[in-house]
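Example 3.2
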Amino acid sequence: MQREPHLSNAALMARRSAAVARGVGQAHEIFVARAANAELWDVEGRRYIDFAGGIAVLNTGHCHPEISAAVKAQVDLYSHTCFQVVAYEPYVELAERLNALAPGAFAKKSIFLSTGAEAVENAVKIARAHTRRPGVIAFTGGYHGRTMMTLGLTGKVAPYKIGFGPFPGEVFHALYPNALHGVSVDDALHSVELLFKNDIEPERVAAFILEPVQGEGGFYVAPNDFVEGLRALADRHGILIIADEVQTGAGRTGTWFASEQWPVAPDLITTAKSMAGGFPISGVVGRAEVMDAPAPGGLGGTYAGSPIGCAAALAVLKVFDDEQLLARSRALGERLTAGLRRIAAGEPAIGDVRGLGAMVAIELFEQGDTARPDAALTRQVVAEAARRGLILLSCGTYGNVIRVLVPLTASDLLVDEGLALLADSFAALR
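Structure, written as tokens:
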């Protein structure tokens, strides 16, 4: 098919509607033509500042030259053998690197897959194989993927679960602590104890799974005393803790893994998204004896840990070292938080500014009343920002959170320009 010489967003949207299933959402009616670092240009030539980062995939920015070079070099050598047929050294090196980065004073091993949902599915498989137990306890507001198992784990119905059940059994949901919405750490831990009393005995639970910072759920940070309490329950009953770091990992929160900032170590960690700078790869890293529980052949996949994904991930690690992106993540988080608080000072609708490292969000309420989440205003702000040239994403159980996932490689000047566009968007809607 010959491409149209002058594409427009509207024309492409019409083609999309005719050809692509409606279940594939799209936040903005924009089609990209090219991108660089924290900017992109649509097919009509309009420039945008990217505060979405491909949903936390572009911590190293669009088309980082070192990552692109690594991928091109790998393609010239070999693009696929299937690691389970003929192995390759980059997979092993990447495992060694992640094992060294993961928190916990114990031996670790890793596996690689293709998507975040695959990583979560395999973490559950590994936990069940090790403990010989079926049950998994997840948390309200958590998001773990769109496969059937991960939908079962996800603690948010709309839009992910509608029409897709029944979901896998032996999955239960406890409360995730959320002080802003009236759920204390004690409430959350008590809800786990209630599950033990009412739904499943702890001796049948393989794992707890939680995000250190809830992504789709609204960027709520897991309090340290909650994690400590969960660890105590886990140790008491022989339960594993899985940290789902698909979105928080790869330096977004100021450390390579957000769980490095926990007072206790998880047993398993899932990772994906930014670990390869936009190329598909995911992983599970954890205690060696736990990771070794499945028999040979029980883990893997045709494209799992592809050579191209491994090459990209190793290049990402080099870029993080060379450009000191962990320190940049912390500094950027401070800059974003300060800028958003300045906006909040003049906007009564902004009831909270929060985050960890450069994973930062604002939550909107009607006149700042935390009992009245304002999803309508959130949608309006996101749309107005896009009209002004700023790409944002909303999230949250109530659809009233605006999240910022700008590439860590973005300049202060560009970040400040984006914050100014956000402030202008609020002002335009008063």
